[in-house]
Amino acid sequence: MHITRNRPDSHKGPAEHFTGTVWLDELATPGPPSRLRLFSVHFAPGAHTAWHRHPHGQVLHVTEGEGLVQREGGPAETIRAGDTVWIEPGEAHWHGAGPRTFMTHLAVVEAADDGTTADWGPLVDTTTYPN
User: How far apart are CA 68 and CA 94, in angstroms?
Assistant: First the structure.
């Protein structure tokens, strides 16, 4: 068993992957053979990810606030504190805060063999993100 007591430093989400102000904390990165990654992601109002995919899917669990998630070809859906979302492996999607609310979620992913956890696409355009 390994217990981690020190939280890592928060770092700002890079502009090529996020619109608006986003803070990330990597909470768990167990050593091999595990490829699990656990992040806490805090989105300011209107902030959201770019379109992206995860090689093994993703679990999002909203801990605070209200936000949005949209799968390619589907409508943007509201997510609230207590909601859990499963994103299928390889499914293009984006997620983030609502236009006027903060939102924090835990994101659980499994890294690919090469260590990557996401394949990033374009930023979400202003006609897609609901205002």
Answer: 8
116: how many CB neighbours lie within 10 A of its CB? Answer: 12
CA distance 24 to 63: 14
Token pair for 95: 């997620």
Dist. CA 131–CA 127, nearest whole Å: 9
Going by the DSSP 8-state scheme, the letter that residue 15 receives in this structure is T
Instruction: Give me the torsion for CA of 82, 63, 86, 91, rounded to 10°.
Output: 140
Which residue's structure tokens are 């801990």? 63
Query: pLDDT digits over 25-67, tens only?
Result: 999 888 888 899 999 999 999 999 999 999 999 999 999 999 9
Q: Residue 73 is encoded by which pair of tokens? A: 């070809």
